[in-house]
Amino acid sequence: MVQLAYLIPLFPLIGFLINGLGWRTVPKQAAGFLASLMMLISFGLSLGVFFEVKNATAAIAPIHLFDFIHAGKLVIPFAFKIDALSSLFLLIITGVGFLIHVYSTSYMHDDEGVVKYFAYLNLFVFSMLLLVMGANYLIMFIGWEGVGLCSYLLIGFWFKNRDYTNAAKKAFVMNRIGDLGFLIGMMLVLLNFGTLSYDSLFAETGGMVMSNGLATAIAICFFVGAMGKSAQLPLYTWLPDAMAGPTPVSALIHAATMVTAGIYMIARSSAIYNASEVALQFIAVIGLVTAILAASIAIKQYDIKKVLAYSTVSQLGFMFLAIGCGAYTTAVFHVMTHAFFKALLFLGSGSVIHAMGGEQDIRSMGGLGKKMPITKWTFLIGCIAIAGLPPFAGFFSKDEILAAAFAHNTVLYVLALGAALMTAFYMFRLYFLTFTGSFRGTHDQEHHLHESPIAMTFPLMVLAILAAVAGFFGMPEVFGEHHLLNEFLSPVVHNHGVHHMEHSTEYMLMGISVSLVAVMIFFAYSRTRKPDFAPNTGLAKVLEHKWYVDELYDAVIVRPLVQFSGFLDRIAERKGIDGAVNGVGRLVRWGADRMRLLQNGQVGAYLFTMVVGIVLLFVLGLFCFNF
Amino acid sequence: MPIQYYLFLSLALFCIGIMGALMRRNAIIIFMSIELMLNAVNLLLAAFSKMYNDSAAQIFVFFIMVVAAAEVAVGLAIIVMVYRKVHSVDVNILNRLKH
Amino acid sequence: MILVLLILIPLLVGAVSFFAKGGARNLSLLGALCTLALSAFVASNCGGARIESFSMNWMPALGAKFSLSADGMAAMLCLLTGIILPVVLVLDRQKEREASYYGLIMLSQAGLMGVFLASDALLFYFFWELALIPVYFLCSRWGGEKRIAVTFKFFVYTFLGSLMMLAALIYLSLQTSGVDAFSRDNIIAAGKALPAMQQNIVFVLLFLAFAIKMPIFPFHTWQPDAYEQAPTPVTIILSALMVKMGLYAVVRWLLPVVPQAVSYWSETVMILSIIGIVYASLIAMVQTNVKRLVAYSSIAHMGLMCAAAFAQSQTAMDGLMVQMFNHGINIAAMWVIVNLVENRYGTQDMRQMGGLATTAPVIAISLVIISFANIALPLTNGFVGEFMLFTGIFQGVSGYSAVFMAVTGLGIILGAVYTLSMVQKVAYGENNSGVASVSGLSAAELTSVIVLLAFIIVLGVYPQPLINLVTL
Description:
The complex is a heterotrimer. Chain A has three domains: 1-135; 136-207 and 218-529 and 540-544, no CATH class; 552-626. Helices cover 72% and strands 3% of the residues of chain A. Chain A has helices at 7-21, 28-55, 84-107, 114-133, 137-155, 162-193, 198-206, 212-229, 238-241, 247-256, 261-268, 270-274, 277-299, 304-324, 328-355, 373-387, 393-408, 410-435, 443-448, 454-469, 484-489, 503-528, 538-544, 549-596, 603-625, and strands at 63-71, 74-80. Chain B has helices spanning 3-23, 27-52, 56-86.
């Protein structure tokens, strides 16, 4: 079964090829069905692979397909590595991916580019599978850039809108900045170890041959890659803009799978990170700051998708915080639970937007729960899960992160708790403003309100169940259970410096966070009972404008760069270099013009010059060369 | 006779030729001056030929005389043509090459 | 003998084409396809240690022989020439004075083939000029509005370089024993034996010649103008093939000839090249003319390749070989698309384009794929070469390799910026060009686009055949 794992990415690829090459001939309904079917097959295969890995006793050898690059000493095979980590990600990608494909068949059914859409979506899944299945960093990088490409294509899916294509471009370019870090990290690995394969590499670094400085350099470079892909400070601004894409895309790419690639990469490289305390500290700080910053922005957003986008950035920050504390499995656990509840929330918001006829502003919503009960209840489950109330999934994973932070440093814990409380607040603010109270939109919209069709509500219900129960895979030991996920991942991912706490401390932490979250939910409820959308002032205005980070980047980086380029183009290139080249030409022409005057046409003058020349030569020969 | 006599005569002829070519404006006189220079060289060659007992130089003399004759034919023809065109053989007004 | 045919067929076909009134295009196409088949055959016979060669007396008094040889690299470049030429021929139907147009194109192919195959320095110089002169006439007769001035500059500039090269080659040949004074082996032996000072002079002369041809910052200013003004098929010859002559010459006639001077100068050259990458990328960002944008993008790519050529590492050299082929394919494909777009909109100004994805989706899709190959997205051919180049530069002997690599990396980011801006302006958005309907592709255009796209994808997924051809 595991040896057939290459079939898992093959099926989405086939789907992409059929839909992509037949974008004019494949009927609209068939495209969605085909794409979903391919995902279902992949999901089935992934399940098989997952259970085989779970029951396997020894490590599974990589599946070698062919040599991608083989030039002299540089040998990079195109090979897949199936182990606990990748099989878990396979399940998340194909499982959530399948649900979102099903959802899309209904959500996108009247879009003219639906065949193209499913082609892109399948291509994305293919790339994402390459990313997690690759047996070396180069294959991961192929997937890494591939998902960036699909993200670009899908953000700019409605390409007639200039803002959307700008957002797509921004996403790709910011990812490229990160990719450069990844690339340099890869170069460092290749230069120092001569291989990019995980197997030979980590066999080597396991023996601690890696110096601290080198490990830090590689770790930071890889983390820069993760910053881009997983939208961490300072490269996070593309993710909120990426909401320009269709909502299922936001759910799949910009919430559940692609943006967690950074977590996967670092978990995969845990051996390198464990060798560098500095890099871990750095990651923890970046993660924490991102979590707080994004959560604070989410509080004041009015676009339903923007709230969720900043929430995603913030949750990713939590995951990096966990990594920074050395708790890689906790980060992976949160990736899993987050994939479920954030996909659920995005799909729920898609259902709302669908019902509202494209309206995304929560100021025009309200009271939708009456017309859309399934969406409402599933959305509520998602909110509870992300806010972290037991026994829903988010509670366990987030609590584990907070516990790791507490064990690491109390300041980290307090700040992280603050971010978690903001999360509870903005999510329930969103929930109450959208689903409770009275409707604030136009009469037409109200008339049009309806519950979404079964193809959309079915994924919502499945995800709601998963968001409710997924936490039990990672029951904390304090409840007397085995932490299934930790045990499962332990052969691959090596946690670093995780302290075991007293049970009483752990109970206390849980108690604090649960009670405070409950208070925040009540606070959100009281603030949204009589919604007041007066223009914001002071800090609220700064938050609404996202701390003016986009404006800052524009003023500090983008505009100076464009001006500098303009200067190079107009002055340095045309006047400077080309001017110098043309100047040489002009100089020659000017000189020739002067020389021409010697040719005055007077025979006497020629003769005179000639005689003078002869005499000069004669004298010169006589006195200088003595011949 | 010592060779110096020939040398000085030749030098004198050559200088007269040069001065004539440089100072005079009449094309025919310039032409004659050039012939004078050529003959100065011829004289020199003949003298050295006698001195070194080498007949190769005398062969050169004949070459030069032949070439000079040919040149005179062409040159005089050109001068005649120029005279027909501009009714003058003054070289200073013949500066149309410049344009 | 087959090597002689590679030169002779285009030469004869070109000569005949001058007198073939209506059939010049078909005749040239036939000749180009024959050459393609031959070069594919040569390529299949070469690679690794397998070499084809041919030699006969040419100018015995000077010690120059008509000797050709093809190893993997030369065969690869011949194959590239063979592939590109049919594309050039089918791209645009030239109606004005067509016989001499197609004749000149075929003559330039003969010159290119000769440059890549010659293993005699004088013969190399001969073909170097033979390739240049037809292109001069092509640009100056069929080019854009400012063609005369631009072509004059291009010609004088590159010719100046050629003369410096000739001087260096003659100087080197005088240092040999006199028997086969111009053969490559003897030139290399003579160059290696030179003292440092003389090596440096020879290096500067040769490098300037090749740097102008490639072109390398700051000798590049002829290039955007020439690319903009030349008819697009000729631009393809220039950018896909002729600039490769410069790189090829660096690898063949510079690096092995004066090794001491190369190690002395290599950091300087790498710095120039890398400045060129960033500089050209920045300028490309603010271009509004699509042809100038692609031209600057090409300068950036050439800078990367030149930096790798001087990195003095085996991986860089292997990557350079791979990337020379891939860049040829990519840039040719890019020009094909730019030409289609230009013909349909009747302008080169990107501000007047837009909405191609709605009106001509096939062209838009091709443009997107080629653009991503241009910025080296994995699973396109551009990535394989660039990855190897980066690895090679990073592993280079210079103490600043890491810095070089990092600055070069800026090119990756800026490349994404300008390429995606171009895609956005040309393909996306509303159709605001005033051109109501944009027609699709003709059969010939479609074929050439598909062939080039096939190369882009296949060599991106499975590059090993190409790597095997060009590496030892």
